[in-house]
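Forgive a beginner's question, but might I ask you for the amino acids of a protein and the tokens describing how it folds?
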Amino acid sequence: MRNKHLFCHELLARYRACTDRQLEWRLIPMSIQVVRMTHFENASIQKTANVYFDGKCISHNLTLPDGSRKSVGVILPATLEFNTGAPEIMEVLAGQCRVTLADAPASQTYEAGQSFNVPGNSHFTIEVTDTLHYVCHFG
């Protein structure tokens, strides 16, 4: 039987040649875990943070070269209601939340790797029990 530790080193050497700058490598005993790191190239970043609800939601606005706007932030444990002007896609990077969209009959749970759409000129309630990291993509 092949030495599992040696096999991991072989895999690591093979994947180090990968040119994808968004990969972060972590050697874990007997396995290799690849974690996708998300970043935006050439973004213009607003230096002043958006602080809402007495600091329970903090974000920074970004503008990409194509003109698209995003905000990147965190929501601390709380139940908050947000209003929208433009349509939004909320991408959950870490944590978990329950969201009730305007006029929705029930709430839905979202976790890391999932997203939800919020129509423009609307509102939603978000319940966060553990710190939520997100990207809001404005439409």
Q: What stands out?
A: The longest strand covers residues 122-138. Residues 4-36 form one domain. Residues 56 and 118 are 20 Å apart (CA to CA).
